[in-house]
């Protein structure tokens, strides 16, 4: 016998996967090799020992120090209370004690440069305490180019939204990237079952050479690059369900067929921040078809909710993800689509429970190797509820099911139109206007019909072969 690790608990998949054809928005089949399986057998062991692999959590209070000098959180939606509240909630609900907490660390300058330019990394990844260790001549030239703006609150920012704290922002941003990276590496290697990174500042708007929208370093993109560089992971799926499009992540992998990027975001014909993420943005060169944008349009009439996000996962996200067959799933887990956010910061009505449900769906991929990293989300109750739901899902806990009325609800007309802008797959396009349960019943009916046809065909073949056998052997 051998030393065996627990197989990751994967909840039953609610819809069976059907193969897809190559389309504008679905990735081509790929023959890339799989990542190493996280279950290890040592034949020389004479006893069978089970090692329990737990979900991982990562957090560091140092990230709270990235604060505006004005000290007024009410003027800054992205503030330290976000991660502090989530971490406290996970403790109160007893979820932290059921997970393995990993040590935090700063991402190295080299890791940051796997996604960002050297100039960007030196501008925003160094502070007065460690600048002396670097080439002073080069550093002085670069730091003289750092452009800051005075904010209405009296503080300093790199733009009107994104605050800069000379002593703490670079460290917090590097810790966020280092935490997400290490969590992803440990999950990919099977040391952890899956994981959730409670980090800030967020990352998915940060581009190759520019901070944007509260973001300095693109933590999820950096983690993906390190999975490629350090572990030779062949296929990585990034799902970005923050209500704002992850323009920086899209840019980082736009021509890379080994990273499938799928974003669900409020688009409104380019009128919602940051303005990108049109369904026609599908990747370029070898990466064409590996960038999928579900850009919701139609504003808040009505606001998107559970029925619309369930329809998106059922008709676009999960079919394409199953076909891609990733080795690891990274989630840019922004929770600003959760009910409770103002129209300026989101305005959608997705429930926290729904995000737990979507997490369970993603756990059916990649042997359950799923890593969530906090992005946006600014209503404290909403982001705590959603984080609790997602960590509960990662733990495989029995969670309260979605209500019958939600499962029976059809997506709104604006959502149907938005999904039809993405879908070029007949199987999904035929059911996009159905409720979750209607689509499930149709799928089951079709599957049972095809089984009946197969059974009749096999009976016919047996009858033919019996007759043929009787003629040969009277």
Architecture overview:
This protein has 474 residues and is α/β, with parallel strands linked by helices. It has one domain: Histone deacetylase domain (Arginase, Chain A, 3-Layer(aba) Sandwich). The protein contains 14 helices and twelve strands. The chain has an eight-stranded parallel beta sheet with strand order 4-3-7-12-11-8-9-10, with helices on both faces. A hairpin with a 5-residue loop joins strand 5 and strand 6. Helix 5 packs across helix 6. The longest helix is centred in the C-terminal third of the chain and has 37 residues. The chain is globular and about 80 Å long. The N and C termini lie far apart (52 Å). The N terminus is likely disordered.
Q: Strand order within the widest sheet? A: 4-3-7-12-11-8-9-10
| C-alpha end-to-end distance | 52 Å
Can you identify the CATH class?
A: Alpha Beta
Uncertain stretches: 1-46
Percent strand: 5-15%
Global structural class: alpha/beta
DSSP helix fraction: 25-40%
What is the alpha-carbon Rg in Å?
A: 24 Å
Quaternary state of the chains: single chain
Structural domain count: 1
Mean pLDDT: 86
Describe the global form: globular
**CATH homologous superfamily annotation:** Histone deacetylase domain
CATH topology: Arginase, Chain A
């Amino acid at each position: 016998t051998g030393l065996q690790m627990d197989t990751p608990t994967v909840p039953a998949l609610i819809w069976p996967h059907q193969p897809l054809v190559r389309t504008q928005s679905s990735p081509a089949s790929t023959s890339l090799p799989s990542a190493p399986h996280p279950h290890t057998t040592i034949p020389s062991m004479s006893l069978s020992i089970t090692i329990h692999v737990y979900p991982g959590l990562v957090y560091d209070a140092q990230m709270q120090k990235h604060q505006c000098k004005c000290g007024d959180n009410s003027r800054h939606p992205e503030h330290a209370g976000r991660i502090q509240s989530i971490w406290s909630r996970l403790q109160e609900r007893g979820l932290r004690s059921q997970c393995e907490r990993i040590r935090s660390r700063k991402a190295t300058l080299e890791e940051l440069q796997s996604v960002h330019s050297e100039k960007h990394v030196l501008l925003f990844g160094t502070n007065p305490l460690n600048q002396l260790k670097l080439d002073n001549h080069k550093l002085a030239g670069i730091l003289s180019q750092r452009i800051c703006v005075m904010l209405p609150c009296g503080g300093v920012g790199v733009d009107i939204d994104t605050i800069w704290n000379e002593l703490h922002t670079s460290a917090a941003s590097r810790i966020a990237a280092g935490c997400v990276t290490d969590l992803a590496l440990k999950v990919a290697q099977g040391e952890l079952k899956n994981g959730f990174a409670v980090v800030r500042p967020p990352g998915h708007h940060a581009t190759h050479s520019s901070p944007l929208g509260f973001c300095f370093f693109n933590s999820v993109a950096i983690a993906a690059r390190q999975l490629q560089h350090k572990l030779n992971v062949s296929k990585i799926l990034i799902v970005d369900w923050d209500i704002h499009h992850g323009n920086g992540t899209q840019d980082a992998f736009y021509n890379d067929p080994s990273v499938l990027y799928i974003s669900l975001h409020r688009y409104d014909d380019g009128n919602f921040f940051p303005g990108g993420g049109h369904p026609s943005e599908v990747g370029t060169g070898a990466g064409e078809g590996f960038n999928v944008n579900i850009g919701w349009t139609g504003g808040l009439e009505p606001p998107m909710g559970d029925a619309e996000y369930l329809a998106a996962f059922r008709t676009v996200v999960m079919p394409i993800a199953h076909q891609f067959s990733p080795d690891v799933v990274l989630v840019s887990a922004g929770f600003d689509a959760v009910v409770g956010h103002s129209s300026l910061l989101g305005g959608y009505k997705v429930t926290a429970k729904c995000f737990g449900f979507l997490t369970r769906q993603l756990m059916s991929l990649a042997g359950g190797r799923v890593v969530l990293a906090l992005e946006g989300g600014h209503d404290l109750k909403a982001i705590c509820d959603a984080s609790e739901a997602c960590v509960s899902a990662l733990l495989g806990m029995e969670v309260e099911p979605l209500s019958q009325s939600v499962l029976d609800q059809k997506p709104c007309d604006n959502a149907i139109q938005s999904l039809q802008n993405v879908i070029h797959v007949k199987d999904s396009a035929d059911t996009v206007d159905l409720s979750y349960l209607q689509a499930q019943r149709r799928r089951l009916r079709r599957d049972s019909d095809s089984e009946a046809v197969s059974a009749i065909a096999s009976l016919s073949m047996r009858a033919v072969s019996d007759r043929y056998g009787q003629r040969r052997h009277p």
